[in-house]
Amino acid sequence: MENNKKFAELAAKGLLQSEELYRYVLETSVNPREPEPLKELRDITAGHPMAGMGTAPDAGQLMTMLLKLVDAKKTIEVGVFTGYSLLLTALTIPEDGKIIAIDLNRDSYEIGLPVIKRAGVEHKIDFREAEALPVLDQLLKDNENEGSFDYAFVDADKVNYWNYHEMLMKLLKVGGVVVYDNTLWGGSVAMPEEQTPEILKSGRRATLEFNKLLAGDARVQISHVPLGDGITVCRRIY
Ligand code: SAH
Ligand code: CA
User: Fold this and answer.
1) How far is the CA of 53 from the centre of ligand 2 (A)?
2) How would you classify the pairing of strands 231-236 and 98-103?
3) What is the pTM of this model?
């Protein structure tokens, strides 16, 4: 619990822009436009000891934009927690859109579920309580799924990001988009190893490795955006 609070503080310090500038963006452009159900979900989550894990609303706003731009209908989410990014996806895709949402832990999903139900978008969600890798592997066994997804959001265990990426490169259609969260890992990617707080070290190593691999991956166009804790947007080229 304490660790998580510390992490949130470090993440805030790691922002590339100043705290004042970040607050300005939130107050001017993000908060006034945040849909009511998302605000409510954020409020409910605020009481959770791991609240810092929820998607930052400014990153969420960009994700909503991307979902609309690719006209996303068939989507995947890896790492649901209480459902902020899941609800924003469900609110954005059309009535007949689908989200395969994977998380190890159903209990946290259930915290946000009443808000999702009241928003009338639960029918778009296929929640799977499981390790994400085997679920993605299973999806790939069905030929119909190959190259069929418009959009994916990955926000789970950082050590597996590259494994998720390899599978998503098969599941996404050409032109499809995958967004990876926390790719600045509390700003630690730019800290020397010896100055990195212990709590960030293992995630820092995984993130550095992942960012390097992604930068060298010709299959995708990328944009590494310093919103929230850093997100990387990838568009499958071939
Ligand atoms: N996107 C969420 C935050 C996700 S936090 C939001 O907007 O609020 C990370 C989540 O990843 C946690 O709920 C954790 O249970 C899940 N997770 C971690 N490792 C996982 C794995 N191997 N497979 C599936 N889910 C995993
Ligand atoms: Ca996250």
Assistant:
1) 5
2) unpaired
3) 0.93
